[in-house]
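Predict fold of Rab-GAP TBC domain-containing protein; 727 aa.
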Amino acid sequence: MSAFSEFFKKAHDAINGIRGGNSFFLGKDGDVVYSKNNVCVHETDAKAGEDEAHCPGYLSVQCQCDESLGLTLILQWLPNVTLHKNPQSIRSVSPRGKQNRDETPPTRTAEEVRIALGSDEDSSQSVSLDIQVEECGTAVPVKQVKRPTTLVPYSAQEDHSFNDALGVPSINVIPHTPIKHEKDGIQNSEKVKDDVERQSQSSLSTSCADEMSEKELSSSEDEDDGCEGKVDVGVGGLEKILESTQMFDVTPEQFALEHDLMLTDTKTTDNDEQSRGRTKKAGTTSLFSVNLGKMRSMRVFYSDPECTCGQLVIATLDSHYKILHFHHGGLDKLAKIFEQWSSIKARSVQEGSPSAIADKQLIICQPAAPTFEKDPEEGLFEKMTLNEWRSYENKAGVIVDSSTVRKHIHFASVNFDMREKVWPFLLRVYPWESSADQRDNIKNDLFLEYQNIRKKRYRTMDNAPARWLSIENSIVKDVIRTDRKNPFFAGDNNPNGETMKNILINYAIMNPEINYIQGMSDLLAPLLSTLNDEVDAYFCFTNFMKRTVFSSTPQGNENLMETNLNYLRNMIKLFEPDFYQHLEKQKPDAMQLMFVHRWILLCFKREFPENHALHVWEGCWAAWRTNYFHLFVCVAIVSVYGKDVIAQDLPHDEILLYFSSLAMHMDPVLVLQKARGLLYEFTRLEKIPCVLEGLCSAENEQWHSHKSFRNFYCNQSHTDKEVCPYQ
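Predicted 3D structure, encoded as tokens:
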């Protein structure tokens, strides 16, 4: 009888192999086909820019035969902390609720797992669970529920028609921006002490003194009136910037949790309804088990040229996400297993077997730019060295052909050891036509000017100590957590941190209409660590700010962020019409382009490793053919990585999560190549939309290198009521 049972089992496996339920190349039912330790989940109490709260764990992938799905994979992750405390808990990573086809207990792996977990399920019942998490050492099933997609005030939720909506406070909600309540009622405080404490809590806060000139600070009689008049002008122009900076310190995991996109457990209410939102406490990352065959998508993003490290993003059918980070390799091997499994599923579907998920479930992101999408001069230049720099100088030290130098930097950037010499030119601290002797005189003059700035700082802070103390506290709070992994700023009581603080305070004193805004420390840090001189770093930083949306226009009332976003919307419409149409379906939320705000404000510093981000900076500073090269970089990212957004039909909040999770997992070389190709394509357009006329700066003489004139046409995309001259 035993021989007949064995024969029957082999016949059953053979039939399953034909229909896709088994594969010699992948594994049999119950086989573990992949395992890897130290696969991380980043806990939701981590902050971007700081050391992430890594939670390493043991990951395994197991084959399972499913009657409805055929061959499927069960992915399981167990925290190392749990594994160290209880080594036997490694058994708990096997799926519960699997119906066994074998009758002999010793041969049933899944049954052994249920015994180890102390399961008391009725063997006659067949349970199909998609997700499991561990709560206090016990595996808890998680049922997928539909995520609310509508935002309504709390008061409106009393209406039964809004049962599926997500309640929000009755305030003006900024899409994609976490709602904070801690400021409620504080603005009405009449005590100066309370006002100072409120401002010191956030680096985004501003004070009356922030918007006043030194002359106004010296006049105590008109101090309050002058403050009120300045707030509307200065802060109003920077309102969108202040809103956007709230996303700087939000990790993808935090954003997913706050917007109900995190894959967490659920809780049954008294009405026996499933409601999401029971967030886990910090440090309680738990066991995770999921049937990949029932997931909407699995996306693999590599973060290194060898394509071994990166992240795996799993999305459920109801749009909840889990992000697994592979910091120590092994992701390439897992991707190969996924590819084999996908091919088996595809073959099964062709032969008539069921498939719960359509194609596009597995997306391994390895984008490439074909030659026709690149600038024809791509690859003709190498990073600028000292010898090449000297070849552009005459005997007096004057750069003879600055246009060629900027073109060289635009295509290839500069070597690390050349940045200290080249950056002051790119940031216009030194004129290109200046000689070596003239630059020495300029350096001496700047040193004396900086001493006067320091004296002015002391006088100004003495006139309003409480107000400037709050600004200093905001700066210090950001400085102590900026680039802590950089040896130049590492360690407690690092004098370089004090230098950074002094530069930012001096800048706020000299630019009261801008003051200090969160994110400035991120832009200053590379300048200071590269130049290693307070005076040079200050003036380079000042000119850098003039190129960013932090700066105000001479009129002081134009929102530069909105100007950039208007350009970007029309550039996406021109270069990526499919992506633009997808955004239009989500409007008005998606058309605010919240996913690009951090790119523009921090100049891609959080999106690429620092050395590559600095290459982007140098390409923008070179101002070759346009002063808005950073927008071409934004379009390049959308062009390279945005196709998945369309394929998955992601709504606006998931678009922001998608691009946020791409940070440090994009190919910077490819993005720059694509951006330069888009710029080349733009310069060769027969006609240019009138709303993009500003991209064609008259000071960039290279624009006319191949065309004698430019033609513009009205594309009816004006946001104002002005009459278009090209109609």
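The chain has 25 helices and 16 strands.
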